[in-house]
Each structure stands twice: as structure tokens, then as C-alpha cells.
Write a structure and sequence with these properties.
Creatine Amidinohydrolase, Chain A, domain 1, 12 strands, Muramoyl-pentapeptide Carboxypeptidase, domain 2, single chain, 2 domains, alpha/beta, about 15% strand, 13 helices, about 40% helix
């Protein structure tokens, strides 16, 4: 855990994301749990993997955690997590505990996860809207409904419950359309640990830039529209304009930048073996059915619901018969 906290400034990376979400919400409360642990057998769990949406806003890697964000004139970010317990750490691994979690991850308040049910009705009281992903876990849905009903029970004392419920994942998908430096950095750090210098050539492109590449540069090269489309998508059709695509290079082999010879580099070999762990996929492999030239340097991110929705037509095309 020391290595993780020394390599990432959690306050600098994740607190601004929470602030952006609170600003977009304007008012209301957002609740976001992490993924549960899964038993492999009677006394052993599968290797734990946190919920991606939860981690995107919190950076917190531990199970049994819930994040609450209260929007408004004075936004508050609150984390509920496991208590510090040196005895359990012998068996389960390191725990931050509420005090250290607040300091390291930049939350305004942190409480024991055992206090969640007692505190949630207070936090939801007089909030006009609730932002929460429902429908994936019946037990979680029932728990949230219990908190709302506890607030509704106070109506005679002038307390109001949220009158609207919004799907939080849809809001987060919009935020995650454009990858920030940290998300690419996670894959680059992993590559560096294996001795591979993975560098970024190009990521998000505006429509104006894509117009320039397709029309102006294509005209300078005396390319027909069909030829241009094989090497650069028309404006409005480029994966780069979605914010999910990136052109990668091997820092030790600049001669292979944006060239099919990139496939001979250690960086390409590493990406082929490891990119899927970070939700990246090679967009245009050899003989792709889109008819786009082979681009071993061009990878797209499919680690969110919005990305999967955007690229679902490409998957159908790839999976279609000849």
C-alpha cells in the first residue's frame, strides 16, 4: 500500500472529479458503493477487484466501502469504510481506517462502514434528488429504499425525502468520455514496471482538427476521399473524437511511430499481452472488416458503459460473417 500512495496523489487526481460531479448535479445526494467481495470457497475469497465507477471518484481500493457526495453551495464528500483493525490485517491485508482514509484520499468526512445505515437517512434528509445506480443488486436496492423510507417517516416533522432518482452511472459515463492523464498513466506505469517505455502520441481530437487532417492534409497528399478514409476517419467518425482512443508508441523506438513496424516493438508485444487488463483494445487489426488500414498503434478504451455502447456497432461488424 505504501507503494500505491507514494505513486499517486489521490487528492490531486480524485478530488477534482468529485468536484466536477457535484457541480454537474447542482443539488442532491449521490451514493456509490464499491464491489462486494466474492467467496471462492468456505474460507477464501477471489482476488478483490473494486467497482470501476467507485474507484473513478474515490481512488479507494478496499471492499466494504460506500461513497456519498452531497452537492449544493457547500459540497461534501463522505466515505464509509472498514475500521482500522491490526488483528484482521494479519489475515485480510492492510486497512486505512476512516482517519487515514480521510487524510490520504481527500474526503471531507470519513466514518466506519458500521455507521452507514444510521447516518444515511440524515444525509438524505431534505435532498431534492438522489443519484444512485439501481437494478443491479436487489439487496442494495432494498437498502437504499429503506433509507428513503426512513426519511419519509419524518414528513410530519417537516423533513422531505428525495423526490427524484437519477442513474448515477449515466452521469459518470459522460464524465469518463474523455480520458484524463491518470487513466492512461495507470497502464503506462504497469508497462514501465515491465521495462517497456509506452508513450502517447495522440489522444482526443476535436472536430476541427479532424477536418484539417481529413480534408487539408489529405488534399496536400493528393489522396482521394476513399484513400483518405482508409488512413483517417472523416470528421464526426473518428474514434479520437469520442475521447476513448489513443495512439501509442514505444519510447525506445521512435522510428516506428505511426508505422506498421510498431508491431515489432516491445511496446506492441506488451500491449498485446496486457492492454485488455486496462480495458484497451486494438481498434484496427490486420484485415479488419471496417476496411481501415492496419494500425497497430491505435487502441481504444472500452472500460465504461458509454464506451461499450459507442463501439457496439464495430463489434457487430467484426463478428459478422465474411
Amino acid at each position: 500500500m505504501k507503494t500505491i500512495t507514494n505513486s499517486i496523489d489521490f487528492r490531486a487526481v480524485f478530488a477534482p472529479r468529485r468536484a466536477r460531479l457535484a457541480a454537474a448535479m447542482q443539488t442532491g445526494a449521490a451514493i456509490l458503493p464499491t464491489a462486494p467481495e466474492r467467496l471462492r470457497n468456505r474460507d477464501a475469497h477471489y482476488l478483490y477487484r473494486y467497482d470501476s465507477y467507485f474507484y473513478y471518484l474515490s481512488g479507494f481500493p478496499e471492499p466494504e466501502s460506500v461513497m456519498v457526495l452531497l452537492a449544493g453551495d457547500t459540497p461534501r464528500s463522505i466515505l464509509f469504510c472498514r475500521d482500522k483493525d491490526l488483528e484482521r490485517e494479519i489475515w485480510d491485508g492492510f486497512r486505512f481506517g476512516p482517519d487515514a482514509a480521510r487524510e490520504v484520499f481527500g474526503f471531507d468526512e470519513c466514518y466506519s462502514i458500521t455507521e452507514l445505515d444510521a447516518r444515511m437517512p440524515q444525509l438524505l434528509a431534505d435532498q431534492p434528488a438522489l443519484y444512485c445506480h439501481l437494478g443491479a443488486d436487489a439487496d442494495w436496492d432494498a437498502r437504499v429504499l429503506g433509507w428513503i423510507n426512513a426519511v419519509r417517516a419524518q414528513v410530519r416533522s417537516g423533513v422531505a425525502a428525495p423526490s427524484a432518482v437519477h442513474d448515477l452511472h449515466r452521469w459518470l459515463d459522460d464524465m469518463r468520455v474523455v480520458k484524463d492523464e491518470h487513466e492512461l498513466a495507470a497502464m503506462r506505469r504497469a508497462a514501465a514496471a515491465d521495462g517497456v517505455n509506452l508513450s502517447v502520441i495522440s489522444a482526443f481530437r476535436s472536430l476541427d482538427l479532424q477536418r484539417h487532417l481529413f480534408f487539408d492534409v489529405g488534399a496536400e497528399r493528393n489522396q482521394s476521399p476513399q484513400d483518405r478514409a482508409r488512413v483517417s476517419a472523416p470528421p464526426g467518425f473518428s474514434e479520437h473524437s469520442t475521447g476513448f482512443a489513443v495512439d501509442l508508441a514505444d519510447g525506445g523506438r521512435p522510428d516506428t511511430n505511426l508505422s506498421t513496424s510498431f508491431e515489432t516493438t516491445p511496446a506492441f508485444a506488451w500491449l498485446s499481452a496486457n492492454a485488455a487488463r486496462f480495458h484497451f483494445l486494438l481498434s484496427f487489426p490486420k484485415h479488419n472488416r471496417q476496411g481501415v488500414s492496419y494500425e497497430p498503434w491505435h487502441w481504444r478504451y472500452e472500460g465504461s458503459t458509454e464506451a461499450l455502447r459507442l463501439f457496439e456497432p464495430a463489434h457487430r461488424l467484426i463478428g459478422s460473417p465474411p
